[in-house]
Amino acid sequence: MNTKTIEILMGDRDLTFNVTLEAYNQCVNALQMDNKVAPMHNFLISVSADEKTKEAVNQAFKDALTSDLFGVVVKEFKPDVEITVKKSRNGQDKLSRKDSPS
User: Fold this and answer.
1) CB within 8 A of 73, min separation 6: which ones?
2) N or C terminus of the chain: which is more exposed, having fewer CB within 10 Å?
3) 9: closest CA among 83, 72, 51, 54?
């Protein structure tokens, strides 16, 4: 599986992550409405390239920075693609409510 190496400077620490699509997908699949930080933390630990990066990830967790660090790593991992929603051929569909006020 292809691995993308991502190097980040967090404060004065150089961090290195080796991210794969499999690791990313596992994390996204583990995210739940009431459980986001733990899967993000586990992902960052699992893709850490060395012990000093793991230590920094654990410190980020203690400093409530896990989601910030996760966001930076994922933004760098995913390609920069523009996605646009096109209008339907019939124009914009309107929702109708059965219980709308009279």
Assistant:
1) 6, 8, 17, 19, 44, 47
2) C
3) 72
How far is 1 from 100, CA to CA, in rounded Å? 53
In whole angstroms, give the CA distance from residue 99 to residue 73: 46
Estimate to the nearest angstrom the gap between the alpha carbon of 82 and the chain centroid.
17
DSSP assigned state of 79: -
**Does the pTM exceed 0.85?**
no
Chunked mean pLDDT (size 10), the chain, 102 residues: 94 97 96 95 98 98 97 96 83 61 55
Task: Please report where in the chains the tokens 């929702």 appear, as a residue.
Answer: 95
Confidence (pLDDT) at 86: 87
Best CA proximity match to 21, nearest among 77, 63, 70, 72? 77
